[in-house]
Amino acid sequence: MFSGPPPTDYFAIFGIENKLALDVEDLQRRFYANSREWHPDRHARAGAEQLAYAEAASATLNDAWRVLRDPVARAEYVLKNAGFDIGEQRGRDVPPELLEEVFELNMALEEARDGDENAKAEVARALTKFEGLLKEIDVQRDGIFVNYDADPNRETLTTLRALLNRRKYLQNLVRDARAGLA
Amino acid sequence: MAYSDKVVDHYNNPRNVGSMDKSRTDVGTGMVGAPECGDVMKLQIQVNSATGIIEDAKFKTFGCGSAIASSSLATEWLKGKSVDEALEIKNTDIVNELALPPVKIHCSVLAEDAIKAAINDYKTKQGAPVSAETVSH
User: With a cut of 0.85, is the ipTM above it?
Assistant: First the structure.
């Protein structure tokens, strides 16, 4: 098993199927087991080829663990492998029904900066709302994961991509609101 | 990246900042946003319904200097124009006037979108039954 280069695919390095909905506890067990097995110290005297394999496998495993344990990073990994442009998308995915709220939040943040206590309450209210929306998005995301695993197709990934854009947008709002209250 | 003098001028002395009563039938409101940077822009026009001339324009923008300058300039240009003339304003006009660099072109696009959205809202209100507009907010 130490001949040739180790897998570079993040799912393959764990020996699991390419699925979006995965069991993170199982992933963690595999991470610990594989980390022990491939730790370079254990292969230091086993010859150059085996050591090189262990080092490469350990490095990929660490990267893969960091990415796959996080649902958003995992989804972005799958999207990127499917040819989607991550992070550079200039799509107009601002939910129009949210714009009014975003505007009001910014107004309140500005007033809160000027020391208006009522505005702080407004920011807190907006924060609660946006945090709720984030939770809803994560539920939707998990639903899309299951759908994609059952029937992998590009349309589902496009939906996922748009959802992650919205999530990022909301996350920025939550960050701004928290900073405004701090 | 250095801002042009005109951007700095509009940023430091934004024209027509403010807001109008969006429930009025002679006021059109355009609210647009850019997901990538979180910019949000509100632009409002008040139209003389007899002449179709835009008598006043206000904006409030949360975003970078270019977004603020683009919307400030847009309100300046809107005043005194007819609604149809206002629809002729293109984002490239704003880019040229403010000397916006390529990375800031989306700010001018946002301003053009806001103008169109405000006019759209005004036109919808003019065509819509009056009863729907008397509801206060």
Answer: no
